[in-house]
Amino acid sequence: MKLFRRILIAAGALALAATAAQAQQFFRIGTGGTAGTYYPVGGMVANVISQPGKISATAQASAGSVANVNAIASGAAESGFSQADVATWAYTATGVWQGRPAVSGLRLIANLYPESVHIVARKGAGIRSVADLKGKRVALDEPGSGTLINARSILAAYGLKDADLRAEYIKPNQAGDKLKDGALDAFFFTGGAPAGAIAELASAGAGIELVPIDGPQADAIRKASGFFAPDVIPADTYKGLPAVRTLSVGAQWVTSDKADANLVYEIVKKLYSADGQKAMGAGHAKGKFITKENAVEGAGIPFHAGAERFYKEVGVLK
User: Fold this and answer.
1) Are 1 and 50 in contact (CB under 8 A)?
2) What is the pLDDT of residues 206-264, one digit of tens each?
3) Which of 43, 89, 166, 194 could be 97's S-S partner, Cβ–Cβ 3.0 to 4.6 Å?
C-alpha cells in the first residue's frame, strides 16, 4: 500500500513538472555584437518580459539584422532586432533580398528607436567627409549586419564602393581596437547612440571624430530609400565630441507568424506596462524611445497578431 502511495506521489510530481515545463515558454532575441546597441537593449527587453514560470526570454549576440532575420526564418531564434529597411526587404524580396526567397512569415512586434549612422574617424587621418574615405583603411562591419548595407548605400551616394577603400569586415569593437592602435582609419556603425564601442574610445581619449552625412548626398540617400531620416547626434553624446548631422533608420523587433499569439500579446503587454517602461527608461539612453506610441511607427511589414491585438486595445493602432 505504501509502495502504491509512493508511486502515486511520484507520478503526481512528474505531472506537475511536465505542466510547469509546458507553461514555461522560451523566447530568444537575436541582437547584434556585444559592443553595439542591440545587445544591451536586447538584454533589458529580455529582463523586462521574462516572467518566472511563464516566459523565459534571453538576448543572444549575433551578426545583426540580416543574420537575425535568417535565424527567425530557419527557426533558430524566436525573434530578433532588425533595421526597418532590412526587415521590409526580406519580407518583400526587394533591395538586398532581391533574387532570394521572400521571408513572407516575418512579422513586426514593435518599432523600437532610431538608429544613427556613425562614421568614426581617427584624428589626424584627414577624413572630414565621406569622400575622404577613398583609399583609407575602413571597417564596414561584418557580413549579415545592417551596418554593412547602410555603409554601401552611403558610399555609393559619394561615388565610392568597397574596392575604392582598403575595406575590412569586422565588428565595431574590433574596429575600435584597431583604430585605437593606429591600424584603421575609420569605421561605420549603425545603432542607437551612445554605442558602447564608440563611447569607450571617446572616454579613453583615443582621438576620434564623427564624420557628417549631410548635404545633397544625404538628400539623395533619403530620396533613394524612404527608410532613412535626417538625424543629429547631439554634442557630448560621446565625450568631447561636437554635434554631427547624420542619418538614421528605425530599429525594429521582429518575429515569425508562427510565434504563439497569446505569448506575443503577453510580451508586449509586459514591455509597455508601467514597470516595464520605467525599467526601459532607466536602463539605456535609447530606452526612453521604446514606447507604445513609437511601437507602431514606420511599420514596413505586418504586425504579429498578438502585438496587433495589444496595440488596438490601447488605442495606438486602428
Assistant:
1) no
2) 899 999 999 999 999 988 877 888 999 999 999 999 999 999 999 999 999 999 999 99
3) 89
